[in-house]
Automatic annotation (TrEMBL):
Protein name: ABC-2 family transporter protein
Compositionally biased residues, Low complexity: 277-290
Span list, region Disordered: 253-290
Record carries keyword Transmembrane helix: yes
Keywords noted in UniProt: Membrane, Transmembrane, Transmembrane helix
Transmembrane regions: 18-36, 60-79, 108-130, 142-162, 169-186, 233-251, 314-332, 338-363, 383-404, 424-444, 456-474, 500-519
Length: 529
């Protein structure tokens, strides 16, 4: 039965839109990286393009890129029944909750592996098409099964467990951010010990090939021994433990859901009165005035902000951001240098907050099945969307203030007196504005998307495209959304001129996108056929 469930899940995931889009994008980017030097994102400049070192490095880098794909596929598989409202019906079947969840996980993990096959297929096909050859077959097998397979299993297992704990896609995001943080700590180090704890194997591979020449690295793959073998065994064990934890959580949740519930009649307080209330005519809907609209926006903004700020997910992201800010501030001396370090190094968490929480806010009513109720209220759809943007703005402002506070506190701890006004004018306000531009784009793309995952995908493609443009040297702020001379430093530190005009122009574009999103309103449920 479990194998049958895994097969059904695999078929559903492979036939989905996310699988096809990611497969096509990865093929294009891998082949493009082989053909154009500027597109070799994360790749070393030395060595043959289809040598063993390039094959190993490509598999490692793309296992990192596939974190969000794994989060989307595994999180969707675990949470699908609750999001679609069929959870009670599925749990009424004779299949145990743990077996059902494990079968879903196996199918989703198989889909992630099949999607990742695009990487070696693209390398082989691209190498043959470019006249470079297919590369050593043993290197492809070693890189896929020894490096990529354990990395993808660890990522999927972590998202499986986090989805069981948080019951939210943002829980999967937290796992992705945590793994990226571990990679950032030790990803490029070949020191003893760090190569063991870094989960993706970058440091272990670097340590195993540290004494090899470029020709030796191109000729063969690193030996599976010593620290590399210990690293793979350690994280495979961690992945197995996480799969067991996720299955236990699903089993426990299924046991809780089997408890008897009060009948609908007892909750409604009698069918007769409830029927009478339903048959009463609805009061005519009146158009609110300007003062009422302002009150509605303020109330809804506070409500939407409470969807994010008190959550464990945001708290964990904030803690990781504060730790990164403190680490960056501790390596420099003086407020200007600290602000510059914060602006250039602290960039992951704000992107994550703007990207993912925009989706969480925009689709909240649809996912919680209250969209028909909100439609029946006198609150306009534009008010609801604008309040979500303002809530995201408040969250980003508080994030910038917290990071600036961490930098100032670090200065105090090191015996230096910070300049509060400099932090406000050089970091908090400029960074909040830059992040708001990204938040406006995220809200706008969510309003165009058919679902939340597609909206996230649009933003990921935008970020990947921006990275590719950077590698190509196309960094002119005239056509780079949110760009300005000297970015990401403020003009007081970069010395650039004309920054205000660029900010005004991109701010106007962001305002236009928010206006269009407000005009479209919240997503509506499809009418039943």
């Amino acid at each position: 039965m479990m194998a049958h469930l895994a097969w059904l899940e695999l078929r559903q995931q492979v036939g989905g839109r996310v699988f096809g889009i990611v497969f096509a994008i990865s093929v294009l980017m891998v082949v493009g990286g082989m053909a154009i030097d500027e597109l070799r994102v994360g790749m070393a400049d030395e060595g043959a393009r289809i040598g063993a070192a390039a094959i190993v490095r490509t598999h490692l880098v793309w296992s990192l890129f596939f974190l969000f794909t794994a989060a989307a596929l595994v999180g969707e598989a675990v949470l699908r029944d609750e999001l679609t409202g069929f959870a009670s019906l599925v749990r009424a079947t004779p299949v145990a909750a743990g077996s059902h969840a494990l079968g879903r996980f196996m199918g989703a993990f198989g889909a992630v592996l099949l999607c990742f096959v695009s990487v070696p297929v693209a390398m082989i096909a691209g190498g043959v098409a470019l006249g470079l050859g297919s590369g050593p077959l043993g290197s492809h097998l070693f890189a896929f099964f020894t490096l990529a397979f354990p990395n993808l299993l660890l990522a999927c297992a972590l998202f499986y467990a986090l989805a069981g704990v948080t019951r939210s896609m943002t829980g999967c995001l937290l796992g992705a951010a945590g793994l990226l943080t571990l990679y950032g700590i030790a990803g490029e180090s070949g020191s003893a010990g760090l190569g063991l704890i870094e989960p993706f194997g970058f440091a272990a591979v670097t340590g195993a090939t540290l004494s090899c020449s470029v020709a030796q690295r191109d000729a063969g793959w690193p030996p599976l021994a010593g620290e590399l073998l210990a690293n793979r065994a350690l994280w495979l064990g961690v992945a197995a433990a996480l799969v067991g934890l996720g299955t236990w959580l699903q089993t426990r949740r299924g046991a809780r859901d089997d408890r008897p519930r009060p009948s609908a009649s007892s909750l409604s307080g009698g069918a007769g009165r409830s029927t009478g209330e339903r048959s009463s005519p609805a009061s005519p809907r009146s158009e609110p005035g300007g003062t009422v609209i302002v009150t509605q926006i303020a109330a809804r903004t506070a409500f939407e902000a409470r969807r994010i700020v008190p959550t464990p997910t945001f708290a964990a992201l904030l803690m990781m951001g504060l730790a990164a800010a403190a680490a960056a501030a501790s390596r420099v001396d003086g407020t200007p240098a600290t602000v510059a370090a914060l602006a250039t190094s602290f960039r992951l968490v704000p992107v994550v907050v703007a990207l993912f929480f925009a989706g969480e806010l925009f689709w909240a009513e649809r996912e919680h099945k209250v969209e028909p109720i909100m439609t029946a209220t006198p609150v306009r759809g534009a008010v609801l969307v604008f309040a979500k943007f303002l809530a995201l703005a408040l969250v980003l402002l508080s994030l910038a203030a917290a990071i600036a506070g961490a930098g100032a506190a670090t200065e105090l701890a090191m015996g230096r007196w910070p300049a509060p006004r400099a932090y406000l004018m050089w970091y908090v306000l400029p960074q909040t504005y830059d992040w708001l531009l990204l938040g406006a784009l995220a809200i706008f793309l969510q309003s165009l998307a058919p679902n939340k995952l597609a909206g996230w995908g649009y933003m990921v493609f935008y970020l990947i495209g921006s990275l590719a443009l950077n590698k190509l040297g196309w960094q002119d702020p005239h056509y780079r959304y949110g760009g300005y001379p000297g970015a990401p430093l403020p003009p007081a530190l970069s010395g650039a001129h004309g920054v205000g005009w660029y900010r005004l122009g991109w701010g106007t574009a962001a305002a236009a996108m928010i206006a269009l999103a407000c005009g479209r309103g919240l997503p509506r449920a499809r009418p039943a056929r």
